[in-house]
Amino acid sequence: MQADEASQRKIANRLKRAQGQLNAVIASVEGGADCETVVTQLAAVSSALDKAGFQIIATAMKDCLAEPSAGQPGDAVSMEDLEKLFLSLS
């Protein structure tokens, strides 16, 4: 999959936010935070990762299905493969 630079930057930013949120979850657990705080932060991490995954799949759909690489079959992603990836996030 070859995403344009703007898409790659958005995906990387989402993942960095998720990383920061995960660090906060770890710190909360290590610091003995209450259950509600930890679960709330964990839900935010999960949501951020889901959004990043959906963005990656959306980019793949745009790049691989709308504009398949001519002469480079290894770069193509089938609709079946994208569907499996999408469903793996749910």
List the helices and strands and how they pair.
Elements: H1 5-30, H2 35-66, H3 79-88
Helix pairs in contact: 1-2, 2-3
What's this, in brief?
With about 90 residues, the protein is mostly helical. The chain has helices at about 5-30, 35-65, 80-90.
Can you offer a commentary on this structure?
Helix 1 runs antiparallel to helix 2 and helix 2 packs antiparallel against helix 3 (79-88). The chain has one domain (5-88): Methane Monooxygenase Hydroxylase, Chain G, domain 1, CATH 1.20.58. The chain is built from 3 helices and no strands. Helix content is 76%, strand content 0%. It has 90 residues and is mainly α. The longest helix has 32 residues, at 35-66.
Could you say what the CATH topology is called?
Answer: Methane Monooxygenase Hydroxylase, Chain G, domain 1
Order of helices and strands: HHH
By DSSP (H or I, 4+ residues per run), the number of helices equals 3
**Structural class, please?**
mainly alpha
Offer a few descriptive terms.
Methane Monooxygenase Hydroxylase, Chain G, domain 1, 3 helices, mainly alpha, single chain, 90 residues
